[in-house]
Structures are given as structure tokens and as C-alpha cells.
User: What shape does this take?
Amino acid sequence: MPIVAVAVGGRGLVPLDRPVVHADDEALLRGRAAFETVRVYGGRAFGLDEHLARLAESAARLGLPALETPDFRELADEAIAGAGLADAVLRLFHTPGREGRGRATALALVATLPPGLEELRGRGLRLVSLQTGIDPSARASAPWLLGGVKSTSYAVNMAAAAEAARRGADDAVLLATGDTVLEGPTANVWWRRERTLYTPGLETGILAGVTRALLLERAESLGYHTLEGVFGLADLCAAEEAFTSSSVREVMPVSELDGVAVPRGPASTELQEALRAAATA
Ligand code: PLP
Assistant: This one.
């Protein structure tokens, strides 16, 4: 996703070839920074309040120093205006700054949407399950494991996505011990049996997706019950339909799991339409 605009706290829009973080920023040295990925529809960042709340929570959990110019809203507006794209991806970063100096940096980057999203939605995602060895109950009682924090330490998530690609799939479903279903590397996971939609509960330490929250809210009015909890891979395998949710890819139907076809169904289409209606209202 090529970046088309960059705005920096206290500096505003900067040319793309201008340095914006120091080489010894802890975001780079240790992967210690908070970030958000937001989808822009018609020049507006959708769900920005919810993303900013999660960004602030992640920064607090990571113990990042406060920003001197904390207005991410203004920064996002500058970057979106500078990009001049109606539909795009906005990324926000709160980095701790130079090691030992503690002066935080705020960044807003706008990039083009990844190509092929609608084609992928049409054919559905081929997923493979990958075991992480994470113990969800340990993660719940050990806040230093940063369950639910959106930090820039995403190398493990990217390695899982790469492993999925190596196995000929589009994405991964991450499992915890006991084959508990967690989430995708960059998405929440859902499935349906009859009129009930299942999605892993936040107590498993997954990310509280902004899209997930919106879908949970809308599902009832579309006639679905929702059940959040601790579910095994066998539950997902017995699904009548499955899909993922995230800000960038929105609702993506699943067509295959571990080489076995997953039936297509109405819920992913109905929820995708509800999400689009909310995003473009
Ligand atoms: N889970 C993980 C690990 C993610 O990285 C993301 C988004 O990047 C999501 C879930 C979906 O969250 P959202 O709907 O807020 O984009």
C-alpha cells in the first residue's frame, strides 16, 4: 500500500522523503509503539473516535510518554487532505521517541487501499489454522503480555500471514492452547450456525476490533443472535458460514479452512452491507 501523505505532530504535513522519526526511536529499536489502522471513506476516517480511544488505551498499557501535541484528529485531517484520496487507509502512530529521552511522536500516514479487495470478497478467503501456543487464561492474568494491545510488535502476526501464504492460503486463523480460536493476524474471526453468530470473546486476549464491535451491535437488528466466548477449532469447522472482520478488509467471507470448503451464507453479505451503510452514511 504506497503511502501518499505523512503528517507529524507539531510539524503538520511533511514531504514524503523527509525523515520523521529518529533512528533510535523505541518504535524501531524495540517495536514499542501504539498504532491504529483506520479506513477512510469519502475523505472521512470511519470510527475515528473508537480508534482513538483504543490508541490511547494501547499507549497507556505500553506506558508510552504523553504526546506534546496530542491532537490526532487534526493530524488525521491534515494527512487525509494532503493525500486527496476519497477512499484510503489511515495509519496513526504514537511512538515513545528516542531511547532514554522520552519525547513521544505522533504520526498520521495515508496510503492507497490494498488492491484486489473486492475480488477477494467475491471468491472468499482460504484460511489455515496456526497454533501459537498462547495460553489465553495466562494472557488474561498477565497484563505484561499485552493481550488486546495494538502495538507495533507485529512481526509474529506478519510471520503467521507469511506462513499462511507459504501454504497456499490467503490468511491464518491463530489458535491458542486447546485449539481455542483467537483471531487472524490482522482481523477478527466469526462463524454462523443457524441464526447465531459466534466470535471469540475478548477474555482470550484478542484485539477488541472496532469493526467487531460495530458488527456485534448491528447483528441483532439483522435477526442474528451473537455469542462471544471461548470456542475450539471444532466449533469453527462445524460452521455453516464463516467470515473475518477488520477496518481495511471489512467483512470477508471464508471459502476454505485447512483445505476443507466452508459453505457461503447470507450473514457476511448482510453485515458487509450494514458496515458499508454505516461507513458511508
Ligand atoms: N485483530 C488483530 C490482531 C488486528 O490487527 C486487527 C486489525 O488490524 C483486528 C483484529 C481488527 O480490528 P479492527 O476491526 O479494529 O480493524
User: Anything to note?
Assistant: The longest helix spans residues 48-62. The chain has two domains: 3-111, 117-279. The chain has nine helices and 15 strands.
